[in-house]
Amino acid sequence: MPWKETNPMFERAAFIKSCLEGEETMSSLCRRYGVSRKTGYKWLERYAQEGESGLVEHSRAPHQHPNMTNEEMEEAVVRIRQQHRWGPKKIAARLAKSYDTEDIPSTSTIGDIVKRNGLLVPRKLRRHCSPSTQPLAHAVESNRVWCADFKGWFCTSDGRRVDPLTVTDAHSRYLLACQGMRGKTDTAHVMGVFETLFRAYGMPERIRTDNGTPFASTGLAGLSRLSVWWMRLGIMPERTKPATPSENGRHERMHRTLKEDTASPPAGTPKKQQEAFDRFLRYYNEERPHEALGQVVPAAVYAASPRPYPARMPTVEYGDDMQVRRVRGAGQMKWRGHDVLVTQALTYQAVGLRPVDDGVWEVHFCTTPIGIFDERKLRVKALKTGKGSILNHVDSTVHSSSGGGVNCTPEPETHPPSAG
Q1: CA dist., res. 307 & res. 367, Å (int)
Q2: What is the CA radius of gyration of the chain?
Q3: Of residues 106, 95, 23, 14, the one with CA closest to residue 55
Q4: Predicted local distance difference test score (pLDDT) of residue 149
Q5: How many whole angstroms separate alpha carbon 113 and alpha carbon 120?
Q6: Which H or E element spans position 110?
Q7: How far apart are CA 280 and CA 266, in angstroms?
Q8: Which residues, 6 or more positions from 322, have their beta carbon under 8 angstroms from its beta carbon?
Q9: Are residues 162 and 273 in contact, defined by beta-carbon separation less than 8 angstroms?
Q10: Which of 130, 187, 203, 393 has minimal Cβ neighbours within 10 Å of its Cβ?
């Protein structure tokens, strides 16, 4: 004979049925079902008020407690989350502008409120490698490093392509540009965006990018026409290691917020999409607090560069200890009657060659070593480097004998542009 299955609900229902039949006293029924008289009367009262649903076990948690968040505060948390999609720390920072500090819930409580109101979409967990902090370690003040990248292209509702070019200041997180390029990602159009930024904000010391075009190439030292232009202006290009977006993690994190706020879903036309980018730029710089900045906005930290964009392109001069060669239209230089390939990125630019051994020369452009020239093989090869930046010699000075070296300075300006 199989065991008869039972559960607390069946037991309580049987107890109520026996009580209603009236054949036993309450005391004997409670003894038979193993409960106190108080519990027995409680079940009878619940059954009378709620029917069978009253026999379900109720939570013993108190309905109210002294630390419970009041309705006004919970509504404020929900309102801020719906407007900005911020996390608990940023919501707390915004609440601090309107409420006393002691009245603001903890970040964990704010997180619970967001979850309870269905405002949190669980994100799929993915495994990530541990990011390297070295490339960003020197971004200790505004304009020391700018970060630039293309956010992945997408189409607006009318089917036209948009390629957002973004530029930020690594120290202050200030978003300098968010420009929809509409498929025009070539050197000339990107150069135009940067020229506008240089005129408005001055010039940084370095610009960090990935290894894609037009920022880099597969030629010598990864130089491209764009990075050569930067070097002529005295700006050092830096490149992250291939397939390592974490080395530009601050910029990539901004891209995630940009996508959520402006392209989910995309606007109807490229013009409307650019308007969304412009609104986001103002919001990101002037309204959205940043945890790494002590929950202040980037606009409160960023200051324009003291290095103005020059009225004329700086000239490149090399020291007396160097042989100077001009790279011709095919990316080649002449060496004792022979054509030697350097890189097309340096077409019509002057390079300096400093002797380092018998028949071996170190090739420089501006202040940076870019390769080794072996005159016996008539070949220029890349310097050996394990870094993702353009060279290991980013911060090195040019080794030279007395009176030698390289100079890359602007010519005198007749009308200095404003730093904005």
Answers
A1: 18
A2: 34
A3: 14
A4: 94
A5: 10
A6: helix 107-116
A7: 13
A8: 352, 353, 354, 364, 400, 404, 406
A9: yes
A10: 130
Domain extents in the chain: 8-55, 139-300, 315-409
Q: What is the pTM of this model?
A: 0.67
Q: Cβ distance 243 to 214 under 8 Å?
A: no
Range list of H helices, 24-106: 26-33, 37-50, 71-84, 88-95
Q: Which residues contact 83 (CB under 8 A, 6 or more apart)?
A: none
Angle formed by the axes of helices 107-116 and 88-95, to 10°? 110
Six token digits for residue 46: 């619940």
Asked whether the beta carbons of 208 and 135 are under 8 A apart, the reply is yes
Express each pLDDT in 197-251 by its tens digit.
999 999 999 999 998 899 999 899 999 999 999 999 999 999 988 777 777 888 8
Residue type, 200: A
Query: Among 204, 249, 268, 255, which residue's Cα sits nearest to residue 231?
Result: 204
Tally of helices (H runs) and strands (E runs) in the chain = 10, 16
d(CA 350, CA 365): 7
CATH 3.30.420.10 for the 139-300 domain, yes or no: yes
